[in-house]
Structure formats: C-alpha cells, structure tokens
Design brief:
- The protein contains eight helices and 17 strands.
- It is an alpha+beta fold and about 350 residues long.
- It has a single domain, classed as Endonuclease/exonuclease/phosphatase (Deoxyribonuclease I, Chain A), CATH 3.60.10.
- A hairpin with a 2-residue loop joins strand 12 and strand 13.
- The longest helix has 17 residues.
- It is globular.
- The relative contact order is 0.16.
- InterPro entries: Endo/exonu/phosph_ase_sf (IPR036691).
- Keywords: Signal.
Length: about 350
C-alpha cells in the first residue's frame, strides 16, 4: 500500500522553500535534497508559479489498471514519478477514463500525493459500454482533462465535445465509440490572466480508410485543429491524443504528422509543435527511443500551437515509474507498468 504524504508535510516543505527563495538570494529552489525515507518528497517539489510556462503531461491511462485486472497494470507508478520532479502538473491530459467518477478519483490521488488542488473535466460523465477485450474494467472509456485549480480556472461556456472519424471500406466515416469523443475547454491562467485552451482526444483503431490515409488520421487532425481553434483570443492551445496512428513509416513521416508538426515541410500546415520532436531535434533514432505503444512506435502525442515553445520534453519510462514507486512505497510490481502507453511531459512556454 502506498504511503501518502500528509498535506501538512507538503505545506511545510513549500513554506520552507518559499522562505529560502525570499531570504537566500532569490534563486528558485528546484533541487533541494530531502530525506530518502518512505513517503517523503525527495526534493522541494512545488506548484508551478512561473509566469512563462505550464507543466503538462499526456497519457492513455488505460482505465487506471491494477494488478487484479484482466489487463493488469500499476497505474500509481506515474504519479509517484511526478513526485520526483520539480513541479506538480498544471495540466494532465488523459484518455480512457471510465467516466466522471474515475477522473475525480485520479484528481484526488494526485492531490493527496502532490502539492496543489486538482479537478477534472470529462467528455462524457457516463460513457456507453464498448465490450472491451480487457473485460469490465475497460468497458467504459472517455477522455478527460485534469487541471490544477490554483493555476487554471475553466471559462464557462467553452467546453465542446466531438466525435472523430474511423476507416471503413476505403472511406472515412464518423466513429460511434464513446472513447473517441474528444473534449475541449478554455481556461484563464490565474497567474498571467492569459487564455489557455486544452483538449483531449482518442482516435479509433480502424485501419480501413483510403489507401493514402487508412487510419483517417488526416481527417482527424483537420477536425481536431478546427475544434481547438474554435475559441477567440487564445494565448496558448495544448492537446493530447492517443492517435492509434504512428508518426512515421517505411517512407518517412506520415502525411498526417507532417501536417500537424510545423517543423516539417508539408503542403498543409496546421501549425502545431511536438515537444518530444523538439527535445530530439528531429532525430529519428531519438524519436524511436521515445516510443509510446507497447509494440514500439509513437502513437501518443502532446501538441501545442506553434507560437509557443517547449522545454523538458520527456517520455516517462516504465523503469522511472517503477523506481519512483519503490522509493515512495517501499515496494513495486516490476512486472506491471503504469499503462500500456508511455506518458509524455513538457514545459510549454508562452
């Protein structure tokens, strides 16, 4: 059982860091070493109060898999990994939540283990069943946005949801699964006053579309781009997706990814950036090392509008999650991973 850090301990750590920043010369403390005892924070982890960037994560969380599930996992590993970082997430984009209740459970677990208060927004509170091959634990799937309430405040009337396309008999048609309904919400950054739009999407697995776009990813990037840009006066747009379509194949980058990534020449440019691509400086071998799906390859992506920049782009390895779980709880199921997909994280500067 995980040993949770009491809230008063976390507050005490933050107060000590604040005092030092105020009275020890003014350099922000990111790496103050703490005791290695179980249940303690290894460094002065704090909430992000920097005006210049947001801390963002993206993952298909596979309905928070546990050891007893038919498709087993150890989902808490990823949250324990977050505890080893300098800042709590400002935004956590997730896919495959069972509904509003499970998204709220995730927000509460983050809140119990990291500095900050969290809430959640889901595409569908009670999604329809999909008869998952992994059994009842994954029968209900929706997309969600977990956000830190001390940094982001939802703007009333800006939530939107949309169904995406699937491939069928050589064409692209609307899918019918609840898990492929995307969600978008605009927020006010409470520190800067700027407007931030966040989105979460999960594209279908059907590869029966046109020969040029069998997964209908080109149709879906076009649709997602339209939905994300549907709010005026936006300063930053960030969205995450389990695309079920890789960024590259035997002939190089696929057309949908070239259209999405502003760094790659394409006849269509939707003007998004990928922090993992930026961290890799476009190196193909580096991108291959940053695989996200269990069979290898990148099918999970974090995108932000090209007017912004990124730093600290990172794919969270299973070993990093295992090590963090062991550090904070004293034990870990090394044979189980936090998800069948690896998470991406970055600081998005705007």
């Amino acid at each position: 059982m995980a040993v949770k850090v009491p809230m008063n301990f976390k507050v005490a750590v933050l107060v000590l860091v604040s005092l030092c920043v105020a009275g020890c010369g003014g350099v922000e403390a990111e790496g103050v070493e703490e005791s290695g005892a179980l249940g303690t924070v290894p460094q002065a982890i704090g909430v992000n109060e920097n005006t210049g960037f947001l801390v963002v994560y993206n993952v298909n969380y596979e309905n928070l898999p546990t050891a007893s599930d038919q498709c087993a996992g150890d989902w808490q590993d990823l949250i324990y990994y977050m505890k080893t970082q300098a800042y709590s997430p400002d935004v956590f984009i997730v896919h495959q939540m069972s509904g509003a209740t499970q998204a709220a459970t995730l927000a509460k677990f983050i809140e119990d283990n990291l500095p900050g208060l969290y809430s959640s927004i889901v595409a569908e509170a009670n999604p329809d069943a999909m008869n998952s091959p992994c059994g009842a634990a994954k029968d209900y799937q929706t997309n969600a946005i977990i956000y830190r309430t001390g940094r982001l405040q939802p703007i009333s009337g800006t939530k939107a949801t949309w169904q995406v396309y699937k491939g069928a008999n050589g064409s692209c048609v609307m899918n019918t699964q609840a898990r492929s309904i995307g969600v978008r919400m605009a927020f006010t950054d409470l520190i800067t006053g700027k407007k931030v739009v966040v989105g979460s999407s999960h594209w279908p697995t059907n590869q029966e579309g046109p020969a040029s776009d069998p997964g209908c990813a080109e149709k879906n990037i076009q649709l997602t781009d339209t939905k994300m840009r549907g709010i005026s006066g936006t300063n930053l747009m960030v969205w995450g997706v389990d695309s079920n379509e890789s960024d590259s194949g035997s002939n190089g980058y696929k057309d949908w990814y070239k259209q999405a990534n502003a760094h790659i020449a394409s006849t269509i440019d939707y003007g998004w950036n990928d922090p993992i691509y930026e961290a890799c400086s476009g190196s193909q071998s580096c991108l291959e090392d940053n695989w996200t799906g269990g069979a290898g390859g990148r099918i999970d992506f974090l995108f932000f509008n090209a007017a912004a920049t990124s730093s600290h782009g990172h794919t969270v390895t299973y070993n990093e999650g295992d090590a963090a779980d062991l550090q904070f709880t004293g034990s870990d199921r090394e044979d189980l991973n936090y998800s069948g997909h690896r998470a991406q994280s970055a600081r998005i500067h705007y």
